[in-house]
Amino acid sequence: MRLIEYENLAKLNAPFEDAFRTQFEAVLQSGWYILGHQVQQFEQAFARYCQAEHCVGVANGLEALVLALKAYEFPAGSEVIVPSNTYVATVLAVLQAGLHPVLAPPDMATYNLDPQALPQYISPRTVALMPVHLYGKPCDMPALLSIAQAYGLKVIEDAAQAHGASISGQKVGSFGDMTCFSFYPTKNLGALGDGGAITTNDAALAERLRTLRNYGSQQKYYNQLLGHNSRLDELQAAFLAVKLPELDRINAHKQALAARYLEGLKADFIKPVLQEGYTDVFHIFAVRHPERDRLRQYLLDRGIKTEIHYPLPPFRQEALQGYFDPEAHPLADTIHRTILSLPCSFAHHPEEIEQVIEVMNAF
Ligand SMILES: *Cc1c(COP(=O)(O)O)cnc(C)c1O
User: What is the DSSP string of 259-279?
Assistant: First the structure.
């Protein structure tokens, strides 16, 4: 029996090692380590990839979300709608921008914001929607954008898990007012450290974000805004430039593994849905089962490692006690109690997936 890891970042990055070394040498020799050519070139390439006009590199995915919110200067305490079943970063970003997160329920088929349920969470204080393309599946952007337009709301997307995802050929990163990405090492486009970016078609917003990420300064030692130190490193941009041309290949590999799961797994498991026209990049391949914990142990006993995204919803986190009514989000509770992420990375072989399927189906 072969041990199957959930993921292995060294293995995942092994094909790019030589190119990474070349880039490291180039950055070292350049003597320019912050906000230089590498960042500028990567920003242009990533904007093009996302079919967006502009891209602003920042320190990480959380900072991308916080700076995007701050770029608008919403009145303090304004409400931003986020999904109740998201990773904690989306909720933290709203709080760190001095705004109030309002949790709206997911659609149980897609785990993304349910457009149908959304209007009842909109109040006169709501200023923005923050949809999350969870697990790599695009949200129903046509529906969300039309709701935003009807209520006069901004749309800032959390695409930390959805690099390369698309709807009818239109890439995530080109839909809302701003789209936020993370290049955390495990993401579909992952750096060798922290990194993030924001894409937008609005030149004025892009300019504001460039100022905000660099101490609120456009001209050295003169500060127009209360900014952050939130810059993407030259070194990380140089590494990302190696992987961006491979992103479609990385996504295709994960999609092929996901297709095996979708075909091979028995119907006892609630599998991700495929939607006409939607390209899901399967950052995470998650299934649901009422006996999730017993299933997870069963797999572990047979050498198969899994993950849970996420064991505890944001409204049940100790740090967020008092912010939300923990009993008001039953759909998110159901997801968090039953979801299980299966091995599905660029470093996995199809035979390993077949082995997981075989063990799963014997459960
Ligand atoms: C990874 C992630 C983030 C945060 O990204 P960091 O780069 O780790 O700050 C935000 N939202 C979601 C949905 C994520 O998966």
Answer: HHHHHHS-TTSBPPPP-TTEE
* Closest atom of ligand 1 relative to the 186 alpha carbon: 1
Q: Say which DSSP state 88 is in.
A: H
Distance between Cα 65 and ligand 1 center (Å) = 9
Domains, the chain: 10-103+113-244 (3.40.640.10), 246-361 (3.90.1150.10)
Atom number of ligand 1 nearest to Cα 183: 7
pLDDT value at position 34?
A: 97
Angle at 45 between CA 59 and CA 225, to 5 degrees: 40
Residue 136, beta-bridge partner list: none
CA distance 103 to 52: 28
Give which of 1, 90, 315, 62 is closest to 196, Cα–Cα: 62
* Residue 155 near residue 176 (C-beta atoms within 8 A): yes
| Alpha-carbon span 99 to 123, nearest angstrom | 14
Element spanning 129, H or E: strand 126-129
DSSP 181-213: EE--TTSSS--SS--EEEEES-HHHHHHHHHHH
Residue 158 Cβ contacting ligand 1 at under 6 Å: yes
Task: Render pLDDT for 53-68 as a digit per residue (tens, 0 to 9).
Answer: 999 999 999 999 999 9
Q: Is residue 184 reached through a cis peptide bond, with omega within 30 degrees of 0 on the bond before it?
A: no
